[in-house]
Amino acid sequence: MSNRTISAEAIADLERRKVPVPVSGVAMDLPARTSVELHRHDNGQLVFSSSGVMAVDVGHGKWVLPPQRAMWIPAPIEHRLVTLTSVSLRNLLISDSISGSLPTTCSALRVSGLLRELIIRLAEEPEQIATDTQRQAINTLLFEELRDFSDGPVFLPQPTSERMQRVCEALMENPADVRPLEYWASVAAVSSRTLARMFMRETGMSFAMWRRQLRLIESLALLGQGESVTNVALDVGYESTSAFIEAFKKTFGETPARYFC
Q: Is 133 exposed, middle or buried, given 0-12, 13-18 or 19+ CB atoms closer than 10 A?
């Protein structure tokens, strides 16, 4: 299957055709390996997939979003999106005039059952919202559900220096790589102590924490594509399936099997 790219101009044109209301929805069904070019919005955007897994890159970090998570991107932050599986994209564009209570930086949140239905209603069935009173009621309920933003395990911070980028890119290409900090220090041409400090300074995480986060994020992508738990555990660098399940449950609160039910 060939890759598909959606241009920033196409996204802008889609927005121009939306009715100018405080909250409007965008519904798109995208095949796997679709890329949406770097773009920005005049209003804030709540990014959500009712099915499928996608990655959102904003330069300083990457989010991997399964159907259980949504991401808030304030205007006018530039971002790009890649679908890791086929995705039912159901996004909301929220006017700056009413988004003051939402975070001023990119953030993720867990999607409750109610929030999921509100997003789908606004994105898929806007014509069925018959009156301004009904729209206001839906928007009020929506904002009640937009709480408890926490990037948690779906966010991977990206480094800024060239040396750190070289190390992190190599690890992202092979999350199962078990070589220690000392090896990667030689790749970066610094001491291991210096590399450890660079990780904390540029990502806010230790080397071990960052690599663990990378593995768990990669596991979300693979599990979302239907890979078996055993294969995923080995692919991302765990010595056993049970060790992976334990780490996954500790981070996400559920086993991999239940998380994607």
A: exposed
Query: Whole-angstrom Cα distance, residue 229 to residue 256?
Result: 7
| Residue-level pLDDT at 254 | 86
CA-CA distance, 81 to 83, in Å (whole number)?
Answer: 7
Q: If you average pLDDT over residues 139-158, what whole number do you get? A: 85
List the beta strands (DSSP E) in the chain. Answer: 4-6, 23-30, 34-39, 44-48, 54-57, 61-65, 69-73, 79-83, 87-94, 107-110, 155-157
pLDDT at 20: 62
Give the pTM. 0.84
State CA 114 to chain mean position distance: 20
Q: Give just the sign of the alpha carbon dihedral 72, 75, 78, 84.
A: positive
Per-residue pLDDT tens digits for 115-136: 999 999 998 877 777 688 888 8
Calpha distance 166→183 (Å, rounded): 13
What is the C-alpha R_g of the chain?
Answer: 19
Backbone angles phi, psi at 110, to 5 degrees: -80, 140
